[in-house]
Amino acid sequence: MPEDLIRYDIIIQDALRGAVKKILTEVGRTGLPGEHHFYIAFDTTAPGVRISQRLRERYPQEMTVVLQHQFWDLTITDHTFEVGLSFGGVPERLLVPFAAIKGFFDPSVQFALEFDPGKTAEELPAEVIAAGDAARTLRDIDQMTGAATIETLQTNESSPVNQDEAAARESEAGEDEAEEKPAAGADVVSLDAFRKKN
Predict the structure, then answer these.
(1) Lowest mean pLDDT among 14-23, 67-76, 146-155
(2) Are 65 and 37 in contact (CB under 8 A)?
(3) pTM of this prediction?
């Protein structure tokens, strides 16, 4: 079979990402019409993705967000979309390059697109990649500092007073974990739930 030197696969992927961009631009301008709402799956490790360390720890590879009732400040650029969502009552701001999108699904009309992340002719601007990398670096520093703090606390937990403090911290950690379940309007689900079963 002859080699595809035109790379139709990449051209089609970019054209479909352009459709997602156009859809989100219109929603950002006028809001969601009727019963339309979107499930957007993306690769959390892709260049330029900016999410909090808390979300990155919970979704180290892939995340699916729902744009329906509770989202705000949807901003579209040539290469990315940015949106505010609430997860467990905690507001978060996500920045996602279109090249990182793995799936786009509107269940109200059974419309779905699947993508191969990174399979694009589009090059992300250096500032978008740098912003994502800088956010990752800051998260890594915070994570290392947090780990050092935990080690210090564990070393000092031998005294009776510190054991009480440790129990209180464990109780607070349990409450935090309970709060981290996504709130309505910011559901995170697997795109596999919508794929047809054979």
Answers:
(1) 146-155
(2) no
(3) 0.65
Determine the residue type at 25.
Answer: T
Contacts 24+ apart (CB under 8 A), 14-17: 14/120, 14/121, 14/122, 16/113, 16/115, 17/98, 17/99, 17/101, 17/115, 17/120, 17/122
68 alpha carbon, distance to own chain's centre: 16
- Pair of tokens at residue 172: 């607070």
Question: How many CB atoms are closer than 10 A to CB 66?
Answer: 21
Question: How many Å apart are CA 97 and CA 11, to the nearest integer?
Answer: 17
Q: How far is the C-alpha of 87 from the C-alpha of 129, rounded, in Å?
A: 25
Residue 94 near residue 42 (C-beta atoms within 8 A): no
Band of pLDDT at residue 95, cut at 50, 70 and 90: very high
Query: Do residues 60 and 48 touch, judged by C-beta distance below 8 A?
Result: no
Residues belonging to the chain: 198
| CB-neighbour burial class of residue 103 (10 A; exposed 0-12, middle 13-18, buried 19+) | buried
